[in-house]
Amino acid sequence: MSHAEADHDTRRSRQWLAGEARGAGVDRDRLLELGAAMAALTAAADEREPVAVAPAPVGVDPGIAKPLPPDLLRPLDTNAEMRWTALAGQGYVVPNDRFFVRNHTVTPHLDADTWRLRLFGTGLRGAPTRDAPVEFGLDDLRRLPTEESTALLECAGNGRRYFAEQQDDPAPGVAWGLGGVGVARWRGVRLGTVLRLAGLRDDAVDVMPEGLDPDYVTGGVNLGRVRRPLPIAKALDDVLLAYEMNGEPLPADHGFPVRVVVPGWIGISSIKWVGPVEVSTTPLFSPWNTRFYRMFGPGHPAEGTVLGAQPVKSAFELAWDARVPAGAELLLRGRSWSGNGPINRVEVDTGDGWRPADLVAADRGGPWQRWTARWRPPAPGRYTLRARATDATGTTQPDRATPNALAYLFDGIVHHPITAF
Ligand code: MTE
Predict the structure, then answer these.
(1) Rounded to the nearest whole angstrom, what is the distance from the C-alpha of residue 267 to the centroid of ligand 1?
(2) Does 104 sit in the ligand 1 pocket, CB within 6 Å?
(3) Per residue in 131-164, pLDDT tens?
(4) What's this model's pTM, rounded to 2 decimal places?
(5) From the candidate CATH numbers 2.60.40.650, 3.40.50.300, 3.30.365.10, 3.20.10.10, the one assigned to the domain spanning 313-420
(6) Domain range annotation of the chain
(7) What pLDDT does 5 receive?
(8) N or C: which end of the chain has fewer CB within 10 A?
(9) How distant, in Å, are the alpha carbons of 11, 76, 165, 298 from that of 4?
């Protein structure tokens, strides 16, 4: 069975359209209506609306728990993006204090002592129900064999603002620059290990982790808890139930005490604050794979099309509108990444044509690639820096990204302004 996100989604879309949906949160006709509305762009402002948060459960503070120093993070609605300058001089992974936060509502403050992972559904032997699940506490998980994975997390909307700023395309939703991405060293237990201990049946097909953050309410509809199904093949492959991030207990904003990490898939798959996990012998659906995280708009059918892997992107570890001395040699640094595999080539243009950047050898084959390029701004004035990468499939970043109604998967070359003085 293929582990590719797009293949899985294509199959599930067909099943969903054939009326096999269950657990989508809202019924199929309503979702189709919503899909059509999105295609017509009438729902364009949907994700931008202030999120209506259900009354906060006891122990939940509004917003994000960690400090948001302006030199490290930029707040965006209920989220915060990493400033790329904050990576200058850092190592391969993004330190926890500057890792981007994507919250549909707010960071819940959960008690590790009472927290339980609760597995249930027809895909488990004995078919435990939601009310009588198979449970694991944090200590139970810590006793199981540990696994470490250096994985990249990226929001599907990362780079969205450049649809509007560089292309004049509508870009509804969170206006991410390029800072909705990060790589961390995650440590935990394989989801597969826990599924097997919970009595996984051979005929289970889907696994749906659910977050313990408040219900997500948008456009007057309560879509319930943030959740998104995974096919069993992926769940048994490299998916982690992580309880550590870069050697520390998972921070509150990143899913304490336990989150799912789905390497290579878009960020929404990596459910934070995981609690219930449905395991099913029939396909599972949620608004997060039927309504959001799909391509709508011209060229796409009413129900939208699948969101493939994250495309190729590049960013300079420089402030937007950075000021640098004219005439002095600079070592420009940046990173490139692609959901389709390692980066093979990066080129940089400082105003006089494309030339190759130097790739950091130690990073070859990893989830992102650091690179450097020398540049001596010849005279005071304004310049535009551009970087474009090519991944292992031979795909190079285009000048323009292909627009879609919800403005996902921006892969165009970003024009980074800089002033020499
Ligand atoms: N899980 C829950 N429970 N609630 C959320 O809002 N956001 C998702 C995903 N998991 C989300 C979630 C999205 S869209 C992304 S991009 C990643 O978490 C972001 O992870 P981070 O906040 O640790 O960077």
Answers:
(1) 6
(2) yes
(3) 999 999 999 999 999 999 999 999 999 999 999 9
(4) 0.89
(5) 2.60.40.650
(6) 51-281, 313-420
(7) 66
(8) C
(9) 11, 30, 32, 25
